[in-house]
Amino acid sequence: MKILILSVTAGGGHLATARAMEDMFKKKGADVKVIDIYRYINRFLYSIIDKGCAFSTSKTPDIFGAVYSYLEKRNEPETEFDIMQLVNALCAFRFESFIENLNPDAIICTHVFAAQIVNELKKKNKIEAPAVGIITDYTIHPYWGSVSYIEHINLASEMLVYHAVKRGIKKERITAFGIPVGPKFCEKKEKTEARRILNLPLHGKTVLVMSGSLGQADMLDMSRQISRAGQDITQLLVCGKNKRLFTKLCKYKDENNMRDLYIYGYADNVDLLMDASDCIITKPGGITVSEALVKCLPMIIIDPIPGHEERNSEFLLNNGVCIEVSKTFPLEEAVNFLLENPQRAGAMRNYMAALGKPNSTENIANFVMGLRT
Question: Residue 51 has what DSSP assignment?
Fold first, then answer.
C-alpha cells in the first residue's frame, strides 16, 4: 500500500506527527512518502509560512489570538473569503501533477493547510485516494470546517466530537484515535533506571522543563523560580533549537555552581527524560501534551499562545490533568504545590491514564490501511 503523508513544518509538532505515522506505516510494510507541502511547492512560500508562524506566535501573540477568535466566530467558513484558502487553492494547481504521478492509495494530512490543498484537488475530482486529516490539538481549528471533501477527520479525544460537529464536521467523518506519538513514548522505564541511564541523582524530585521546538521560553527565570520552590530539586532544561538560550543557561549554571541543573539542546530522548521526572513544565502544544499523557507525567502549563494553545489548556484543566501558572499563581508555587502534594499528583496520573491514547499511532495506521481493503 502506498501512503502519502503531507505536513507543514511550522511549529514542529505537525512534522513530528508525520514522522510518527511514517514509522508505524513502515513497520506495517507500507510504502510511505512524507512531504512538507510548502517546501515542495515553493521554497519562498515555505519560508514565509514557517517564519511567519514563529513570529506571530512569539512576537504578536495577541494578534494571533484575535485572528483565531475571528475565525471561530464565522458561520460558514467554507464559503467566506479567506487569504489562506486562496493561497492553498493556488498551491493545489502546483501539486496536482505530483499526486497524479505518485498515485497514492491513501493521503494523510497532519496540518490543516495541507488538508485545504488536498480538499481543493478533491473538489475538482483530481484525487481518488481517501484522505484523512489528523488534528494535532485538543481543540478544532476553524479551518478544519472548510475541508468537507476530506473523508475522515481524526480527533485527539472522543470528548471533542460535539465541538467538531459544531465546527461543521459531520459525525460520520469523525474518528477519535488520538494524537499520534512515537512508539518509544509507549514504553515505560522505572524512574530510578531512567535517572541512572541519564546519569542523574537517583533521589529527590526531578522537574523537566520543555521550551518548545523553537526554545522561546524564559527558562532562566523559570529555573530561578524552581530553585525557590523547594530543596533537592533536579532541573532538566530542554532548550530546543535555541542555541543562544543554551549558551546563556550554561553560563548561568557555571557562574552559580548549580550541580542540580542539567541543560539539553534539541533532545531526541524526551521519552527517557519524562520517565526520570516527577512533573513537566511546558507550553500546551498538542504533541508534547499527548506524550506526557501517555507517560502519565503530571503537567504544569505555562504561557499558552492565544488561540489553539489556550483551548488546549482549557481542555486539560477541565479534565484534571494539569495545573496552570498565572499572575496570581506563579511557577514556584505551582511546582511546590505539585511536588509537595502526592495525592494531587496521583489523582492527576489517574486522569491521565484515562485520557491518554498510547495506541493512537497504530490505530490510525490500521484504520487507514483498511480503507482500501
Answer: H
Common-topology check for domains 2-181+358-369 and 183-355: yes
| Neighbouring residues of 86: CB distance < 8 A, sequence distance ≥ 6 | none
Q: Phi, psi at residue 303, to the nearest 5°?
A: 45, 55
Superfamily of chain region 183-355: Glycogen Phosphorylase B; (3.40.50.2000)
Lookup: cell for 42? 515553493
Greatest CA span in the chain, whole angstroms? 64
Task: Say if residue 4 is exposed, middle or buried (CB neighbours under 10 Å; 0-12, 13-18, 19+).
Answer: buried
pLDDT digits (tens, 9 = 90+) for 67-79: 556 566 665 555 5
Q: What is the pLDDT of residues 81-138, one digit of tens each?
A: 466 666 666 667 778 888 888 999 999 999 998 999 899 999 989 999 999 999 999 9
pTM: 0.88
- What CATH number is given for 2-181+358-369 in this structure? 3.40.50.2000
Task: Work out the angle between the directed axes of helices 219-229 and 243-256 (0-180°, nearest 10).
Answer: 40
